[in-house]
Amino acid sequence: MRTLEKLWKRSSIEDAMQALRKMGVEARGPITTPHGHRIVLIGKQILLEAEIINLHQNDELNPEAIRKYLALVGRDAMDVSVTLDL
User: What's this model's pTM, rounded to 2 decimal places?
Assistant: First the structure.
């Protein structure tokens, strides 16, 4: 039997990826790196699985919010805007 925490986390990333697909966002992942990090690729940008889950849980998983988040953390969001078709 899975713990509620594992079930919640699995559900969250699946829900977030489904939300991205519904918006027409080309996202790949989650992918596990050789160092064990779980990442999601959106265009040429790499976001951690936790970042995607956090954006989704805060109802901020949309093109504008992703661009703002990337700017906030000091990453170039130019590539994402093209991928997100804005």
Answer: 0.71
